[in-house]
Amino acid sequence: MSAMADRGVIENSKVLMVGAGGIGCELLKTLVLTGFKHIHVIDMDTIEVSNLNRQFLFRKRHVGMSKAQVAREAVLRFRPDVEIVAHHANVKSSQFNVEYFQQFSIVLNGLDNLDARRHVNRLCLAADVPLVESGTTGYLGQVTVHVKGRTECYECQPKPAPKTYPVCTITSTPSKPVHCIVWAKDLPFLKLFGDKTLSNDLDVRTSGAETSNEQEEASFFDLQKDETSKAYAARVFDRLFGQNIEIALKNEGAWKERRKPTPLFIADIFGSEDKHEENGSENGSALENKSKDEGSALSAMTKVGLKNPQEMWSVKENAKLFLESVRLFLDKRKQEIGKLTFDKDDQLAVEFVTAAANLRAHSFGIPMQTLFDAKGIAGNIIHAIATTNAIIAGLIVLEAIKLLEKNLEACRMTYCLEHASRKLLLMPCEMDVPNPKCYVCSQTPLVLEVNTSTVTLRDVVEKIARKKLAASFPTIMQGYNVLCETGDDIDPHSAAIYEAKLDMKLDSLTPVPIVDGVEITIEDLQQDFSCSVYVKHREDFSEEEADEMRLGGLDLLTPADTQATAKTEAALKSSSAEIVDGDEDTVMIDGVSALGTKRKLEEEPQGPVQKKMKV
Ligand SMILES: Nc1ncnc2c1ncn2[C@@H]1O[C@H](COP(=O)(O)OP(=O)(O)OP(=O)(O)O)[C@@H](O)[C@H]1O
Ligand SMILES: [Zn+2]
């Protein structure tokens, strides 16, 4: 196609760009410099200091402002003739419905989470608009192209599950730095500063070890009457790193084939010196300097004289950091205690977690980490590289142009590699055709193994429809009978009816119970998503299946189930619609759909930030 034709295609097309972060900033710049003239940008976030190193459209003065709006203004400064509409909003909100998506020639994603990517995938399928999807992790990146009916959709292939660790490794037998960081984040951090009602086990125990009195354990971490923050920090320190290790050591059998941990007490680390006098130049009086910290990120490391987050600190320095961070939380962030959850952008939280993890690591003979590295592990961060984002943004635009020129044959999914393969850092691959077993684009039914007498409709809505199937506003149907509908526009009368049903067990639901052999439909009208789910009653679930539910493909059905299904199908087909109630609760039991293909639905990743990466 000629260069002139390219320009026309580019200038006349209307592009939706979702995400104005690392990839998004690069992409918006590349789009306008390529000649695109009509662009919508959606991003729900505001600018943070940590974005500035790579999201080059933003400056320090923009911190706290909308990414979409600032990105628009920054680009208009050098391309004032371009029409850019900025939406500071979640792409999942109802204003961005199928009709909204239909106005675009193409959708380009620069997102950082699976949930939003799945949502956009469904809207692109529903609106029949091509999607270019992307992701980067450090040096690695990828760009994929999705065209309804012609290529795989974003959900055609299962995504890898995030790494999890056995509870006993975290609580009792850590052997790697990451085990100590997960412990510090999920146990002491939450016990001290998070919701104390959540069950948690802080003791370092191995099976058979003495268990401490749970109530005593819970109240131990409360600030006692007239207790200073300094005394509290010291008391908690000795408990976490000293007494709990001593308890664990009593279980001698556990240490026969393992290196025994060493208990750490404040007195051993600081000797006779006053640890609180050691705290920087302030003589430990963090409280007195309150105004100094206002407006700036509260930090314990500067107070104890630690400057370089990439330096390896000693045990004594980590102990000082631990004590100071606990004191600062108590003295200056009292209002937040009891509500905090770990956030990688919360400096004090990162300092506490680094110090606690390092002290535990030292106890167990595991290498300690710098704060920089500990933050990366705690926040599941693979540090973003601006150049990778720029390369990926360039590739997105190249694929977009091919799609707009209707040259699908030339489109490629491209991987950006860390190390050259056959002298190439970019690896283009042929795209796959749609997966006929995909429950999103090929509408293959699924199977839900569930204990129908203990699981409630709410469990199905929250854990299956929302979490596993990524429905934003799920509706659960049984035939034409609506069991539950969610969304902003449900009238109060219907909402009350659905609410009453939500806590009912599946097998007690009225007018039609959900029991073995029944087929339900899970829908999301906004996403135009609909999935048939065949219910299979099961009573024995393993510990890992504590929800008493397992969603899978049709291979979960045994031959007996399939026979039963066929019978049910035949019976349902021959039966006429059944009217249960006089008014609107008319129940028409629809036929069970043909259950012919086999597909195993892999677990979906649950972590907050998932980049699609298949390199
Ligand atoms: N549901 C959503 N709706 C709109 N924008 C979204 C949604 N989910 C994620 N985003 C945006 O996608 C962008 C992804 O950018 P990026 O991966 O660089 O993440 P970041 O939050 O800017 O940086 P980091 O996570 O590294 O601190 C973010 O700006 C984020 O606000
Ligand atoms: Zn698909």
Estimated share of beta-strand residues:
5-15%
CATH superfamily of the largest domain: Ubiquitin activating enzymes (Uba3). Chain: B, domain 2
User: What's the average pLDDT?
Assistant: 84
Main sheet? Answer: 8 strands, mixed
CATH A-level architecture of the largest domain: Orthogonal Bundle
The CATH class of the largest domain is identified as Mainly Alpha
Bound molecules: adenosine-5'-triphosphate, zinc ion
How many DSSP H or I helices? 20
Number of strands: 14
Radius of gyration equals 28 Å
Task: Report strand order across the widest sheet.
Answer: 3-2-1-4-5-6-7-8
Ends: how far apart?
32 Å
Low-confidence runs of at least 5 consecutive residues: 201-211, 278-296, 571-615
Give the total of domains: 3
> What class, by secondary structure content?
alpha/beta
Query: What do we call the CATH topology of the largest domain?
Result: Arc Repressor Mutant, subunit A
Shape: globular
Give a verbal description of the structure:
- The chain is 35% helix and 14% strand.
- It is of the alpha/beta class and 615 residues long.
- It folds into 3 domains: 3-161 and 383-429, NAD(P)-binding Rossmann-like Domain (Rossmann fold, 3-Layer(aba) Sandwich), CATH 3.40.50.720; 167-378, Ubiquitin activating enzymes (Uba3). Chain: B, domain 2 (Arc Repressor Mutant, subunit A, Orthogonal Bundle), CATH 1.10.10.520; 446-574, Structural Genomics Hypothetical 15.5 Kd Protein In mrcA-pckA Intergenic Region, Chain A.
- An 8-stranded mixed β-sheet has the order 3-2-1-4-5-6-7-8, with helices on both faces. A 6-stranded mixed β-sheet has the order 11-10-12-13-9-14.
- The model is unreliable at 201-211, 278-296 and 571-615 (pLDDT under 50).
- The site of adenosine-5'-triphosphate has 20 residues, from helix 2 and strand 2.
- Residues 274-294, 596-615 are annotated as: Disordered.
